[in-house]
């Protein structure tokens, strides 16, 4: 593990890489009482050439710094921290799997620890550490769709809050809705904010994923539009989210929008057969297809999922899925195509011009 400490009067200590061990905290540590902590989630991949690659790590460092700033946790040199993480990966490179879809998960964590004192106050002492874990593909046998429980009572984020930061306090309140959804056969939750305006509520994100909707618009040309909620302070700026937006805009066969989305629009599109795909995105799952949106009264919006089309794209030769206009005459599966295109970049099959921040270790 990589670790370093910070004190208000001294600043940061020199970072060290040590054997993984437990962390000792005083019972009055602020992190235990007031959840003053933030974290990141990122992955390192081993390519076909044997090189290790971090996927857009500068975006993780930017988000980590933003989360820390929101909680008055100490700022850090983002470039230096990233270099320290690379050194940790060099030491542990034998743990990085070399099969496609496998990776090593990287978890940086910054917490507020303090002298024996109870009370809410700005950070005086902090600890930063980074741990690693090898992980396999989310779905070893291919893309498997799940159902989302539509949560309209309990909120994940609210205007002026911390929905755009990656802090522990955003995740604990999602556990009860998650449990309620599990009882209805759902694996994740789609949060819909009741903001007092008509339209059935404002569609947000899932417990641990940004969410995308492929809608065929009304009109003579029946234009395809890939929609995800905008970064309005309620939505976590996901690195996979941003990558999906970049790739999809390069495909050239659909309109790609970041805009407010009311739940009534989804219901109307589903009723008319115009809701063609729904999927979530995140570091852990990458691209997660959805086959149903389940309400509290157990009514369900059924979402199409074309498994054959998804498998077709996953089986494409490396480097072909991300080419503009390459889908003419091929089956429609945006989530399948995006998964193949992301794997190509992460494992070094292609040098993507879209992601110039993908870095070798």
Describe the overall structure.
The chain is an alpha+beta fold. It folds into two domains: 134 residues, D-amino Acid Aminotransferase, Chain A, domain 1 (2-Layer Sandwich), CATH 3.30.470; 206 residues, D-amino Acid Aminotransferase, Chain A, domain 2. The chain contains eight helices and 18 strands. The strands form two sheets. Strands 1, 2, 3, 4, 5, 6, 7, 8 and 18 form a nine-stranded antiparallel beta sheet that branches. Strands 9, 10, 11, 12, 13, 14, 15, 16 and 17 form a nine-stranded mixed beta sheet that branches. Strand 16 and strand 17 form a beta hairpin. The radius of gyration is 21 Å and the shape is globular. The two termini are 17 Å apart.
Query: Residue share in helices?
Result: 10-25%
| Low-confidence sequence ranges | none
Task: Examine the secondary-structure arrangement and name the CATH architecture of the largest domain.
Answer: Alpha-Beta Barrel
String of helices and strands = EEEHEEEHHEEEHEEEEHEHEEEHHE
* CATH C-level of the largest domain: Alpha Beta
User: Structural class, judged by helices and strands?
Assistant: alpha+beta
Largest sheet: 9 strands, antiparallel
**What integer is the average pLDDT?**
92
Shape: globular
Q: Roughly how many Å is the radius of gyration?
A: 21 Å
Tally of strands: 18
CATH superfamily assignment of the largest domain?
A: D-amino Acid Aminotransferase, subunit A, domain 2
The span between the termini is 17 Å
- The CATH topology assignment of the largest domain is D-amino Acid Aminotransferase, Chain A, domain 2
User: How many separate domains?
Assistant: 2
Tally of separate helices: 8
Determine the strand fraction and express it as a percent band. Answer: 25-35%
Cofactor: pyridoxal 5'-phosphate
GO molecular function, one term: branched-chain-amino-acid transaminase activity
Keywords: Amino-acid biosynthesis, Aminotransferase, Branched-chain amino acid biosynthesis, Pyridoxal phosphate, Transferase
Protein name: Branched-chain-amino-acid transaminase
